[in-house]
Amino acid sequence: MVKRNKNFAKLQAGYLFPEINRRKKEFMEKHPDADLISLGIGDTTEPLPQVVVEALKEVADEMGTVEGYSGYGDEQGLTELRKKVAEIFYPGLIEADELFISDGAKCDTGRLQMMFGNEMTIAVQDPSYPVYVDSAVIMGQTGSYVTEKKQFENIVYMPCTAENDFFPKLKKADIIYFCSPNNPTGAVATKEQLEHLVRFAKENDAIIVFDAAYAEFITDPNLPKTIYEIEGAKEVAIEVSSFSKPFGYTGVRLGWTVVPKELKYSDGTAVHNDWNRIMTTVFNGASNIIQKATLRSLNDEGLGEMKRLIAYYLQNAKIIKDALDKMGYQTYGGDNAPYIWVKTKSDNSWKAFNHILEETQIVTTPGSGFGPGGETYVRFSAFGHRKKIEEAVARLQKAVLEHI
Ligand code: PGU
């Protein structure tokens, strides 16, 4: 029999969100009449913008003709779409050929780990989006799980707490993962904080992987939406981003990664070169139908729709946050981010998760799913239909949540 990749045995549980689903199902089996409201996984709920729907129909029709049909495209993405995305989201900051179109930020995060290999050390914000740590474990970058610390050996954890305003004391590692607006804390780094991050990476020969999946939720004009607003960032940072949240593409799948040409490894090789090798080797380009339809939708109407969707989810966030604040909870995030990070009285976030589920039939995400730093928190997602959000808030206000 074939020997299993030994790194899988180091993982402590299944991936966080399927694990939550499993518990949700278990709860439904016990309470078949329960009317669950999911504020757990950050998954969009509002329909695709009409401009995208129309463009998709058009492109599908064209694909049914000899002239309009196309097969494999460039692995790096449609040239015109690369130009458009660069122009809209990085005006004057990057070149179009530094931007690679993909099937989403999560998939690119996995492929980045493949590019880095298993000899890198990574640093993560604690708490953080679990994909960075889990993919590092699977790649073999880590040692074992240390139960007392609830940490993996060989991963550098940078605590993000209310006391440090969720901006960590930076620590040395080859690769520093940094997410802003942050999942799960909802914190958004200021320009000064990102300048500090870029300086630190330069001084310590590190590469930053900047996850900007929630950049469009930033409405405060003083907050940076991309790491490339920071001078010198092109020499030290990769940025991953996505249409998932701003355009409702979580199931459609389209994202991108920027790898600036200035970014080099110690032997002088451009990281861009290796990323291109990865994308051409294990990726065959994002769906041509969605790439073409998106290109046609990135006009005034489409960008207006994007703003409308973001404003809708931000209003949801405000409703949840205001209600929890009034109930006396310490809440963070939710202003320029779709997540509200809530401090609980419980010392075990799965217990808090269960308690909320039992008492209100609301599914949240336990903070410990994002790392040991999340143990006393739960995350509320602001993705949901307004009626459901209002209903959730009403339930929370009525419930007796004495343990959290
Ligand atoms: N990056 C961050 C920081 C995210 O929070 C998410 C989604 C992604 C990337 C994924 O982007 P795609 O472009 O759609 O691949 N986080 C959600 C969904 C859970 C998941 O496993 O991705 C969440 O609830 O945290």
What are the bound molecules? ligand PGU
| Main sheet overview | 7 strands, mixed
Could you give the count of β-strands? 15
Mean pLDDT metric: 97
Fourth CATH level, the homologous superfamily of the largest domain: Type I PLP-dependent aspartate aminotransferase-like (Major domain)
- What fraction of the residues are assigned to beta strands by DSSP? 5-15%
Described by the principal axes of the CA atoms, the overall outline is: globular
Helix/strand class: alpha/beta
CATH fold field value of the largest domain:
Aspartate Aminotransferase, domain 2
CATH class of the largest domain: Alpha Beta
Rg measurement, Å:
21 Å
* Count of all domains: 2
- Poorly predicted residue ranges: none
Helix and strand element order: HEHHEHEHEEEEHEEHEHHHEEHEEEH
CATH architecture of the largest domain: 3-Layer(aba) Sandwich
H/I helix tally:
12
